[in-house]
Amino acid sequence: MRYLTLGKTGLRVSEVGFGGIPIIRLSMEEAVAVLRRALERGVTLFDTANLYMDSEDKFGRALAGERRRLVLATKSIKRDRAGVEADIHQSLTKMRTDYLDLFQFHQVSQEDDLKTLTGPGGALEGVLRAKEAGKIRHVGVTSHSLEMAQRLVKMDVFETIQFPFNFVEEAAATELFPAARQANLGILAMKPFCGGLVDKARVAFAYLRQYPDVIPLAGWDTVAGVDEVLDLYDQENVVTQEDQEAMARYRKELGDKFCRRCEYCQPCPQGVLITPAMLYGIVAHRMGPAKAAEFAAKTMETVKQCIQCGECESRCPYGLPIAETIQHHLALFEEHCRAAKITGNNS
């Protein structure tokens, strides 16, 4: 395991980090075992979010007593000062720490989000106050919109950028990372397994390790999964012809149905939360059906408002069959609710 400096933060972090979504579906004991295995194998960067249900609780339980050797990162989707201050307090409490090494504004992809969080009474005010108080040491941002991310890295506000990057979503390599490097931002890669759609660790990380200053955040839910990836880091990286052919197969399979979360489809005139509804299948795969149904209930209820007007599809740069996909996901969600016996507004 190599250790790198995370851009202008000056933080020393492991060359691969731990992403906190998949442990949501695990019991506390199972999650603790997976987290501690990563720690034993040399992982020092642990990234989660206030939004990820009990993920922060599990981080706190597993990593207690190891604070000095860790870099803890979390995120908040809140755009107002009061909301983000409450989230920061909650994150500190759940993760059993008195400071966060890296706090990130979560999923800043829309112009309105950026204006709100940087405006009067916005989340940025709350974060800077928390930084002055020693509760936060460094500030970063995450996005799924390439256009917005290109703006964010030039704002001289953030110290890190987290963006989807894998052998399917490759644009950031040439269209985002050079500007991030020029600004000396730390670069974090979410979705190394394409949001759980790629099941071959060797193929995923053979690609990612070609970019040694980009730190992938691997979402693990088994001890064996931790070992599978970290064993690769004990070897020299070689991208074989077989790896390249596997990547090509995945690209062909996912290319016509893979939501990149750019959010050009939004807002919906009917109030449908299109992007998260498009991702329900991935969420169910990563969290498990019961947890996914609980997590995504409010989102999936909005799908019932879809009138299939086609406006979102006309704005999608990838030509995705959005209406068909979200209706399919609604049916899947309702099936999961029945299986989990979730009733009321969640069914």
From TrEMBL:
Pfam family of the protein (one): Fer4_17
- What are the UniProt keywords, alphabetically? Iron, Iron-sulfur, Metal-binding
Which residues belong to any copy of the 4Fe-4S ferredoxin-type domain? 296-326
State the Gene3D superfamilies in the record.
Answer: NADP-dependent oxidoreductase domain
Q: A Gene Ontology MF term for this entry?
A: iron-sulfur cluster binding
Judging by the UniProt lineage, the source's domain of life is: Bacteria
Protein name listed in UniProt: Aldo/keto reductase
Source organism: Desulfobacca acetoxidans
